[in-house]
From TrEMBL:
<feature type="transmembrane region" description="Helical">
    <location>
        <begin position="244"/>
        <end position="263"/>
    </location>
</feature>
<feature type="transmembrane region" description="Helical">
    <location>
        <begin position="284"/>
        <end position="309"/>
    </location>
</feature>
<keyword id="KW-1133">Transmembrane helix</keyword>
<feature type="transmembrane region" description="Helical">
    <location>
        <begin position="429"/>
        <end position="445"/>
    </location>
</feature>
<feature type="transmembrane region" description="Helical">
    <location>
        <begin position="39"/>
        <end position="63"/>
    </location>
</feature>
<feature type="transmembrane region" description="Helical">
    <location>
        <begin position="83"/>
        <end position="103"/>
    </location>
</feature>
<keyword id="KW-0812">Transmembrane</keyword>
<feature type="transmembrane region" description="Helical">
    <location>
        <begin position="6"/>
        <end position="27"/>
    </location>
</feature>
<dbReference type="Pfam" id="PF00474">
    <property type="entry name" value="SSF"/>
</dbReference>
<feature type="transmembrane region" description="Helical">
    <location>
        <begin position="452"/>
        <end position="470"/>
    </location>
</feature>
<feature type="transmembrane region" description="Helical">
    <location>
        <begin position="541"/>
        <end position="560"/>
    </location>
</feature>
<feature type="transmembrane region" description="Helical">
    <location>
        <begin position="153"/>
        <end position="174"/>
    </location>
</feature>
<feature type="transmembrane region" description="Helical">
    <location>
        <begin position="345"/>
        <end position="369"/>
    </location>
</feature>
<comment type="similarity">
    <text>Belongs to the sodium:solute symporter (SSF) (TC 2.A.21) family.</text>
</comment>
<dbReference type="InterPro" id="IPR038377">
    <property type="entry name" value="Na/Glc_symporter_sf"/>
</dbReference>
<feature type="transmembrane region" description="Helical">
    <location>
        <begin position="124"/>
        <end position="147"/>
    </location>
</feature>
<feature type="transmembrane region" description="Helical">
    <location>
        <begin position="390"/>
        <end position="409"/>
    </location>
</feature>
Length: 561
């Protein structure tokens, strides 16, 4: 396997120095000795629209995107792009309907919203849950998958890679949300540039293998010779139907996945919560446009690797330690083809994605622990200065826990031959429907009660577990007639993951409605939010941009249906 040359390392360290110095300059320029906790955690009022949009994308795209999505593209093709293109549509919905509610009610954290809308019990339960989810699932997976990719490219021991990633992320995070937001602008630029270089090289290589030259020729050849990898909507005959079940990727559980992730996720919405509505919406719209472009750098490389694999390349590079072809190695295999310096730049881009995601996640962990647990339940009289100090220490502790778990159990959960992206989706998807039901009814139905919210949280998880293991105890062949089950390779009719999420969401909504009605009959009071319909009205510029995004999405799905 190829490793990095001295020139590649030189490019990487130059990048490291530039980002570090820029982050320090931002910190010194905007640092205020009397900074409030909101200023530290949210960069209140200081992030521009382009910084918000770039930060959203840089924090969203990490190892699980580059490695996991490219691996999924290797296996199933362009259909995995639905996570990107549906996210663009979701961001528009979040900007119009969710962000105004947060800003009007001065919401800075998700547990704060739950406390204000329901009660302290719901907020505390969810705050603790989010901390566990962010550390055990997200922080650990980003660290391990990121280190696995970097180790595969550089040849550096994976333990060293995990440690260095954590140290770099802590360095960025300790500067607060301002440093994260503005350094993310550099991160996302290098990230996209490196991805474009990898895509360009792969398409050129396909052209050369066919006796021609040029990127467009390579794309044309790829569409012709890998035609089965250029469909967005699968029918039941497709072997990947369980991962992407037909129209459900447009009107089913995929909507819940995206709305929960982009609209009810501290880690993501935190970028916009410190800005005014106009700036927040502009930043989110910018992020939506960037999401439309992401398949070029995370999906096309995977499809290109598939075609090159069919032509005899990467057979050794993509072999796991157990002798199994590992799709997760598609993107690192492509990067190993890059010439000196360009390989170093792409290596820096991948590292940038991982570090940006780690830094944003760590800051959200610190925000929730400090503002929603420590200040609420442990020390209500804590000063802003002490909260900022505690937030910095919690970043270090959270990252240390992530490193320890990555080293102890990362390989068992996400080792070679396994789908790290599926690990993340599986574990977060067990609770996403309940959380989203609790939020969406909390937004728009004033009669939703705290007992109903608790049911959605706990019941949603229980329903997810039930549907996951139901095929072991019941024959679901009858669901096949309605398109909600398919015979798997073990001879059992299984419900696709995305459909399962849709079922659980509907059950949570129904359960919340019934419980809330019972509570209201008993005289239970609710804390419904005051909503002014005028606050949902977007500006003409935003409306024009949103229509363009929508039109592009419709065109893409129509063309690649």
């Amino acid at each position: 396997m190829k490793t990095l040359s001295n020139g590649d390392y030189a490019v990487f360290f130059i990048y490291f120095i530039i980002v570090s110095l820029y982050g320090y300059w931002i910190y010194r320029r905007k640092h205020n000795a009397d900074a409030t906790s909101k200023d530290y955690f949210l960069a209140e009022g200081s992030l521009t629209w382009w910084a918000i949009g770039a930060s959203l994308i840089a924090s969203n795209i990490s190892a699980e995107q580059f490695i996991g999505t490219s691996g999924s593209a290797f296996k199933m093709g362009l259909a995995i792009s639905t996570y990107e293109w549906m996210a663009a549509a979701t961001l528009i919905i979040v900007a119009i309907f969710f962000i105004p509610i947060y800003l009007k009610n001065k919401i800075f954290t998700m547990p704060q919203f739950l406390n204000q809308r329901y009660n302290g019990t719901v907020a505390m339960v969810m705050a603790i849950f989010w901390l566990l989810l962010y550390i055990v699932v997200n922080l650990m997976s980003i660290l391990y998958l990121g280190a696995l990719a970097i180790s595969g490219i550089s040849g550096i021991d994976i333990t060293v890679c995990i440690t260095l990633l954590a140290v770099f992320a802590v360095f960025i995070t300790l500067g607060g949300m301002k440093v994260i937001g503005y350094t993310d602008v550099i991160q996302v630029f290098v990230l996209i540039l490196g991805g474009l270089v990898a895509t360009y090289l792969a398409l050129n290589l396909i052209s050369e293998k066919s006796g021609t030259t040029g990127v467009w020729n390579g794309l044309s050849i790829m569409r012709k010779e890998a035609a089965g990898h250029f469909h967005m909507i699968f029918d039941k005959s497709n072997p990947n139907y369980m991962e992407m079940p037909g129209l459900s990727v447009l009107i089913g559980g995929m909507i819940i996945v995206n709305l929960n992730y982009w609209g009810c996720n501290q880690y993501i919405t935190q970028r916009a919560l410190g800005a005014d509505l106009k700036t927040a919406r502009a930043g989110i719209l910018f992020a939506a446009f960037l999401k439309l472009l992401m398949p070029i750098i995370v999906v096309l490389p995977g499809i290109a690797a598939y075609l090159l694999y069919q032509k005899g390349m990467f057979h050794q590079e993509m072999m796991s330690s157990k002798g199994i072809m590992d799709p997760n190695k598609a993107y690192p295999s492509l990067l190993n083809l890059l010439p000196t310096y360009l390989k170093g730049l792409s290596f820096a881009a991948l590292t940038a994605a991982i570090v940006a995601s780690l830094a944003g996640k760590a800051n959200s962990i610190a925000t929730i622990f400090t503002l929603d647990i420590y200040k609420k339940a442990i020390n209500p009289e804590a000063t802003d200065k002490s909260l900022v100090k505690l937030g910095k220490w919690s970043v270090v502790v959270a990252m240390a826990l992530g490193v320890i778990m990555s080293l102890l159990i990362g390989e068992q959960l996400m080792g070679e031959g396994k789908q790290g992206f599926q690990y993340i989706q599986e574990y977060t998807g067990f609770v996403s429907p309940g959380i989203f039901a609790m939020f969406i009814l909390g937004f728009f139905w004033k009669k939703a009660t705290s007992n109903g919210a608790l049911f959605a949280t706990i019941g949603g998880f229980c329903f997810s577990v039930f549907f996951k293991f139901l095929p072991r105890f019941a024959n679901l062949e009858w669901l096949n007639q309605f398109g909600f089950s398919k015979l798997n390779d073990k001879g059992v009719y299984e419900i696709p993951f995305i459909d399962r999420m849709g079922f659980v969401f509907l059950l949570c909504v129904i359960g919340m409605w019934i419980i809330s009605k019972i509570d209201l009959a008993k005289g239970v009071k609710t804390n419904g939010l005051e909503i002014d319909a005028a606050m949902f009205k977007p500006s003409r510029a935003f409306t024009a941009g949103a229509l363009i995004v929508g039109g592009i999405i419709v065109a893409l799905y129509s063309f690649f249906w």
